[in-house]
Amino acid sequence: MKNEQHIEKVFDLLELYNFNELTQADKQLVLSVMTEVEYQDMRTTIGASKSYFDKEPLVFVEKAMETKQFSFPQVLKYAAVAVILVSVGFVGGKFSSSLNEVLIASNDTVYMEKLDTIFSVKRDTIKTRELITVATSSYAQAANIANPTTDENKPMEMQVDCSMDFCPNDMDLIAQSSTKNNMSNNRELEEYIPSIEQ
Amino acid sequence: MKKYTDEQLIKIYLSTVGSLRQRAFDHLYERYAVSMRQYFYHALNRDLEKAKDLVHDLFLKLIEAPRSFDSQQHFKAWLYSVAHNMCKNEYRHYEVTEKYVEHVKASFSEIDVLDENDLYLAESIKQLDEEKRNLIVLRYHEALSVKEIALILDCKEGTIKSRLFYAIKDLTKIYKEILS
Q1: Pairwise CA distance, residues A9 & B165, whole Å
Q2: Average pLDDT of span B118-146
Q3: Among A7, A44, A53, whose Cβ lies nearest the Cβ of B165?
Q4: By C-alpha distance, which of A69, A53, A58, A66 is closest to B108?
């Protein structure tokens, strides 16, 4: 039991001091358990253990780097596989297309691609201006046309007096000459209108 | 949320729902995932893949059975004690799957990072029995105090000191043999 207590104490000393750093009493205590050489050897082992374990994180780092280094050839390996696959695909595609050609020839079927050409004709957009050809009441009065009845059911009746300078029947003629979309007739129409107002 | 202590975070995690709960969990995971992975890695004969799996399982325990966390205990101590028990279970499997472990170790090269002495020491740690190896990892890798280890392993501090002393003694013996 006493020896165990000595060992516990020696262990404390062992972790902290070299033999020559011990007090005389401690040296005596150590020498009661082991020799000086043994003490120093055990100190060396403790130091070596600490040193070894301190390097250990480096081992893990080194391993990680090792993995990275190995990943480069891995990438090359994958690239090589990819190139082979693409090549096989390309050659296979060629082969299959040449096979199709053979089949086409054997069946005497010719596929043609016909392109339609579409001509587009651009036309001018013509704006139309609709001329009012219905005589208003003022024109009608000027032309001696009686006001049309307001009764919607009855067709419009006109009483024509052709003794005037301008005969209202000529309205048809005007209407024909100033047809829709014929802007060239505007001037002609304008020539008539003053004569109507007169 | 990073300013919260582990105990505050676990309290939030246990007593809330939704995004707050998720964030509390994320912070705990961020704090401990790497160190737990390293703990498993060393405790399980430097089997990195197994270590990753066990970290996953460890945090899954917290998700699936959050009430298994003893609120009287420090979260860190609880986490390591659960991890320690998981390691013990794994040791049983290791007898069966030794070939697999050897295969995993063979595929993992540390040679570029560690010098010759480190590799000898790693080999020496590997040759320790599970309990002693676990103690060495907890003390010198995880840098846990004797008090914390005592909490994790549910022992007295004196017992842990004594066990650590013998673990170092055995390790020194193996290390010297390999070096010579």
Answers
A1: 10
A2: 88
A3: A7
A4: A66
Considering only CA atoms, give the Rg of chain B: 18
Residues of B in contact with A63 (CB under 8 A): 48, 108
Average the pLDDT over B69-85 and give the result: 81
CB-based contacts of B94-97 (< 8 A; 24+ apart in sequence): B94/B44, B94/B45
Percent of chain A at pLDDT above 70? Answer: 32
Chain A positions touching B172 (Cβ under 8 A) are 38, 41-42, 44-45
H or E stretch covering A108: none
Which DSSP letter does residue A135 get?
P
Q: What is the ipTM of this complex?
A: 0.71
Which of A27-41, A69-83, A143-157, B9-23 has the least mean pLDDT? Answer: A143-157
User: How far is the alpha carbon of A30 from chain B, nearest alpha carbon, in Å?
Assistant: 12
Which tokens hold the place of B109?
A: 């090269």
pLDDT tens-digit series, residues A112-155: 666 666 666 666 666 666 555 555 455 545 555 555 545 555 55
pLDDT over 70 (residue B128): yes
Burial of A102 from C-beta contacts in 10 A (0-12 / 13-18 / 19+): exposed
Q: Are A149 and A157 in contact (CB under 8 A)?
A: yes
Residue A70 token pair: 């190995």
Q: Which two tokens stand for residue B148?
A: 């914390």
pTM: 0.53
